[in-house]
């Protein structure tokens, strides 16, 4: 089979296509999946760019979508021909968080899904949402499930709530779409007026350019009346203070990303006064993903896949992500 691998110590110019042995027939509890798509996340970028070192020859990419070709003894969840999508934490089946590192995350601690075939435990996959193509399905593993967990599982999102979404990347656009699906009103920030216009087309009720409105947290707070119920915080230390300004008393901030750094000052007195819940999270469990898929099966919602690249052009896809030139998700298909 063909596989994209990453040569140590990493870097986009060290991605290359190779031939790897066919993984063979699935053993007990395993499934054989012919993969057709992956989607790009900032965690994947950290690995391939060499910022998060991994083993020499690692197959990257946490997201994988394809079709079951065969099932091993004892597998009852899937049958040959089923469309499936991978899980970010293949060992976290359900219940509260039990893992805080990436040692068993595909594309980082173990081989990922930038390849044609994989044999893996059946519990490392779920069904794909009904009607989704493979690129669309691949977007739920990391970005989609992160947004779902933050808003629905951790935040208890309900109709009529207000949500602030930072930026227009994969997690943020998924959060906008999920919030609208659930009947919430959404504010979106970006430095691009063009991207803000696209966010409005997806149902954003309030948009704000943070380059021209430096006090965007207060602006969003005033738009919501008494502050927003939920914040999808993907920026990290440089944006957290404004997110705290934007949230209502007793509100919820999902701390998802560190795009502006891994450490910084936190206005603890303001957070305390707001009595807001600051919840760190990393994606979610297989059970959460199964519930997410069920919700998508009954929803008229399709993820935004901005660009699709061939697997051989994976490095170029990451360069687009590096430039911030995308809206929603970037995918690779084969």
Word description of this protein:
With 334 residues, this protein is an alpha/beta fold. The protein contains ten helices and 15 strands. Strands 3, 4, 5, 6, 7, 14 and 15 form a seven-stranded mixed sheet that branches. Strands 10-9-8-11-12-13 form a six-stranded parallel sheet, with helices on both faces. The protein has a two-stranded antiparallel sheet with strand order 1-2. The radius of gyration is 20 Å and the shape is globular. The protein starts with a strand and ends with a strand. The model has no long low-confidence stretch (mean pLDDT 96).
Helix content range: 25-40%
Bin the strand percentage: 25-35%
Order of helical and strand elements = EEEHEEEEHHEHEHEHEHEHEHEHE
Which radius of gyration do the C-alpha atoms yield?
20 Å
In round numbers, the mean pLDDT is: 96
Distance between the termini: 12 Å
Structure summary, number of beta strands: 15
Unreliable runs? none
Instruction: Give the biggest beta sheet.
Output: 7 strands, mixed
Instruction: Categorize the overall geometry.
Output: globular
Structural class: alpha/beta
Counted by DSSP, the helix tally is 10
Summarize the structure.
The chain is α/β, with parallel strands linked by helices and 334 residues long.
